[in-house]
Amino acid sequence: MWLQSYCWRKKLCHLLGDTPDLTRRLFWIQRAVRLFSFSSTMASQALASLSEGGSQISLSTSGEHGRSSIPGFFLGDVQGLKSGRKMGALSLAVLRARGLHQWTLKSWGRFSDPPQLRLSGPSTRAPVRTAATLSLEPAGRSLWDEPLRIAVHRLAPRQPVTLRAALRDEKGALFRAHARYRADAAGRLDLQRAPALGGSFAGLEPMGLLWAMQPDRPFWRLLKRDVQTPFVVELEVLDGHEPDQGKLLASAVHERHFLAPGVRRVPVREGRVRATLFLPPGPGPFPGIVDLFGAGGGLLEYRASLLAGKGFAVMALAYYNYDDLPKHTDVFHLEYFEEAVNYLLCHPQVKGPGIGLLGTSKGGEISLAMASFLKGISAAVIINGSVAAVRAPIYYKDESVPPVPVMRNRMKMTKDGIMDVMDALKSPLEEPKSFIPVERSDTTFLFLVGQDDHNWQSEFYASEASKRLQAHGKQKPQVICYPEAGHYIEVPYFPLCKTGWHNLVGAPILYGGEPRAHAMAQLDAWKQLQIFFHKHLGGKEGTIAAKL
Ligand SMILES: CCCCCC/C=C\CCCCCCCC(=O)SCCNC(=O)CCNC(=O)[C@H](O)C(C)(C)COP(=O)(O)OP(=O)(O)OC[C@H]1O[C@@H](n2cnc3c(N)ncnc32)[C@H](O)[C@@H]1OP(=O)(O)O
Fold first, then answer.
1. Which parts of the chain sit beneath pLDDT 50?
2. Ligand 1 within 6 A of CB of 508
3. Which protein residue has the closest C-alpha to ligand 1 atom 25?
4. Centre of ligand 1 from the C-alpha of residue 487, in Å
5. Half-sphere exposure of residue 277: CA atoms within 13 angstroms, side-chain side
6. Are 278 and 304 in contact (CB under 8 A)?
7. What is the ipTM for the molecules in this complex?
8. In which region does residue 385 sit, left (phi positive, over 0), alpha (psi from -120 to 50) or beta (all else)?
9. In 122, 398, 490, 494, which residue has its Cα 20 to 30 A from 4's Cα atom?
10. Where is the BAAT/Acyl-CoA thioester hydrolase C-terminal domain (predicted)?
């Protein structure tokens, strides 16, 4: 047996050569199974040899472990494989594995420990009809903002199951969601057609397993720090409706990426500007956008990298707490931002005559100030920004906008002991000097507003900016209000951060939002801002009706 196996391994190695192409290797193993009644033991050794050859698959068939490191491989039949029975299951496993060419399976088990397969002896083989498979479309990998089609096949008719999803962020925080489902009469479950019966969400929510994830740390927010690596999402199908107890029926690992194929990431260290520019594939020139996040500073690239995949040259701009920029700041000088705008405008792959701004929260406030004082800005999307200077004055040359006073006595505590600072800022109508002079701007604006934003009064600010622009004969801005959406309107499928640490307040605060409505808002906001930028920065034209 050993000799036979050895010969087969040699033969396979010869056939496969040194190719790193896993699909080709698996193809030959599959052929061997079919054509030469290749035994399962030999096949498992051959598969194991793939990992020796440096492929991404690792295989463990040893009795001590009793389970495979290939998700969904054994489906309760490890003993059968060990006994050397010829297995159609192998070819099935190979077929499954062929879809896994992007998986980093050695990382399996890094997340929450999946329920152990209960393998008590040879008689515990699962019947074929319960050899469930989890199918993902696209298979293996997708972009973070792409929808993922999740389906389970080969369940028993009307079988109750629980689906779980988990990912770990770069700081080790675990984000998880689960939902209960029931298969149809044919034993199929398609999340595009089947409503969740409860769990982290309910109803027809094909992407709920992502947007409903919650962190295992209080006040933690999902952030992607390195856009050159994906988030690795583990998906599991468990028997029954107990999220932590059901037998594992099938599982998959899926990579969610932040860089579309061909998008180039260019670190920028030009003059004082500290940023990262993302350029779409192709020669350009492309419509240019400066992307600004809010309080806390740093350099967050994930929105810029995804947006570059839609045909824009997007520069994620740091303005403090990054590289050699100040760690903290009590004042904003627009000359820094002017330098960044000019850098982008002069870039050979950026289409003029003007660029766009995309700002969230404090980044929205700064974007409004940039559009009011600086030249060369054609379009600006303000996501839950303030129309007043907050906590720090904004300077440009010899002019300044002082911050609105903070009224600490208006801060409230929720019944859960979380600070609600929504009413803590004095209205800019009572402090006109703190009102950013938007009426000076010739920029076209889109305001995206979460109506349940508790960070500050975003809807009021958008409405006042709109009134002021119109009162001065300027173009009426587009204002889209999202009911039950909170402060952190992110790219699609980011889980809601309803309560989080606030760097300025020095305590956790309420950011607001209801998970489902917030998720829908993120999806729509992402479409709307792309349409807006394409229209006003000279890209493709088109409109998509807001869903809400
Ligand atoms: C006296 C004052 C009274 C004020 C009252 C005001 C009342 C109302 C006014 C409201 C005014 C609000 C104005 C601003 C509104 C906003 O802008 S909302 C925030 C939006 N912010 C952003 O979009 C940018 C977010 N960026 C960041 O937070 C940071 O850049 C970064 C965390 C991404 C990276 O910073 P860095 O310094 O590199 O991080 P670390 O060193 O790793 O961690 C620093 C601390 O942050 C904690 N932290 C890190 N990651 C997370 C996370 N994912 N979720 C939650 N917390 C995180 C980390 O633990 C560190 O905390 P400690 O130092 O350990 O305590």
1. 1-128, 541-548
2. no
3. 296
4. 14
5. 21
6. yes
7. 0.95
8. beta
9. 122
10. 333-538
